[in-house]
Design a protein that fits this description.
The protein has one domain: Response regulator (Rossmann fold, 3-Layer(aba) Sandwich). It is globular, with a radius of gyration of 13 Å. The chain contains five helices and seven strands; from the N terminus they run βαβαβββαβαβα. Keywords: Phosphoprotein.
C-alpha cells in the first residue's frame, strides 16, 4: 500500500458488509482521509447535508435501497448533484452502471485491490472519471 500526501478529505462510505466497511475505513484513515461509514442508506442525505463529504463511496446493493436509485437522488438534488461518487459492487459491472441516465464518477468491482481503490479515489478527487 502506497502512502499519499496528507489530504484530510472527507469521505462517506455506504457499504452493508461490515467487514468490507471496516477495511475500507481503516485503509482510508491510514491514508489521512477523514472517513465516516454507514451500513444503510437511510441517513445518507442527512449525513451529506451536515458533513459535506468530498467523495461518496456507494455500494449498489444495500438492505434499504438500491445504489443506482440513491445516485439518481443525489444527481437530481441541487446541493448534491456534483458530489463525486465511486460506486462499488460484487454483482454489477461498469457497463451496467454507465448505461444509466445518472452516472457515477467511477465504478470498482468487488473484490478490488487496495491500491486500485486508492488510485480511483485520488483520481476522482482530482476530477477524473473512470
Amino acid at each position: 500500500m502506497k502512502k499519499k500526501a496528507v489530504t484530510f478529505k472527507n469521505i462517506l462510505v455506504i457499504e452493508d458488509n461490515n467487514a468490507i466497511l471496516d477495511v475500507i475505513t481503516l485503509i482510508l484513515q491510514s491514508e489521512s482521509y477523514k472517513v465516516t461509514g454507514l451500513s444503510k442508506s437511510a441517513d445518507m442525505m442527512m449525513h451529506i447535508d451536515l458533513n459535506k463529504p468530498d467523495l461518496l463511496i456507494l455500494d449498489i446493493m444495500l438492505p434499504d435501497g438500491d445504489g443506482r436509485n440513491l445516485l439518481k437522488q443525489l444527481r437530481t438534488n441541487q446541493p448534491t448533484e456534483k458530489l463525486p461518487v465511486l460506486m462499488i459492487s460484487a454483482k454489477y459491472t461498469a457497463q451496467n452502471i454507465q448505461h444509466g441516465e445518472y452516472k457515477p464518477n467511477g465504478f470498482l468491482p468487488k473484490p478490488f485491490d487496495i491500491d486500485e481503490l486508492l488510485d480511483r479515489i485520488e483520481g476522482i478527487l482530482a476530477g477524473k472519471t473512470y
